[in-house]
Amino acid sequence: MTTLSKRPRCQRCQRPLDHCLCPWIPDLESRTRVLIIQHPSERQHALNTARLLALGLRQCQLLVVERLDDQPEWQAWLRDSNWRTELLFPGPDVPLLSAAVEDSRPRQLVLLDGTWRKARKLLYLNPLLQELPRVALPVAGKSRYRLRKAPSAESLATIEAGVLALSLIEPQTDFSPLLKPFERMIEGQIQAMGLDTYHAHHPHQ
């Protein structure tokens, strides 16, 4: 696994100073509140897109934890009946996320950040998450996340999933600026490894 280097890094985006992404991170508002629960193994990963989403969206919080047992504040957040809370996690018979719901409450969206195996572990270890109504995203085409292996070509990075979900819930708002630092990060990594090396490891890109 690629981890953050020992080079001096930006304390905000956690990227090396000469590859700081802060100039491209927006400052967006949303009506929807987002909670990203990140598996601890992802925290120091160099290609951490959950952090970028949390930095660019005011109503987004990043929680790095495996179990919610000792997180009373976030348990209360998830159980708050004043909000319609949904877990974005695909599965058989899981309905697609939609803006059209017969519920006047504001919405909260929970994303699980990690490999598919780690995300499933987060769900398995936390009965509270299992109790939440689940929603899934429609197939949105090929991910721009060209540096990490995924179960399928349609698998999205956390930031891509968050942007698509918010765009479906609030279609009147343009959330695409959230993807700018993500795209810069990917391009920077490809340039650093060199095109020949990149194509050798990712022949179908």
UniProtKB/TrEMBL annotation:
This is tRNA-uridine aminocarboxypropyltransferase. It comes from the Bacteria. It holds the Pfam family DTW. InterPro entries: DTW (IPR005636), DTWD2/TAPT (IPR039262). Belongs to the TDD superfamily. DTWD2 family. One of its GO terms (molecular function) is tRNA-uridine aminocarboxypropyltransferase activity. GO terms for biological process: tRNA processing. Residues 6-194 form the DTW domain. Keywords: S-adenosyl-L-methionine, Transferase, tRNA processing. It comes from Halopseudomonas phragmitis. Its EC number is 2.5.1.25.
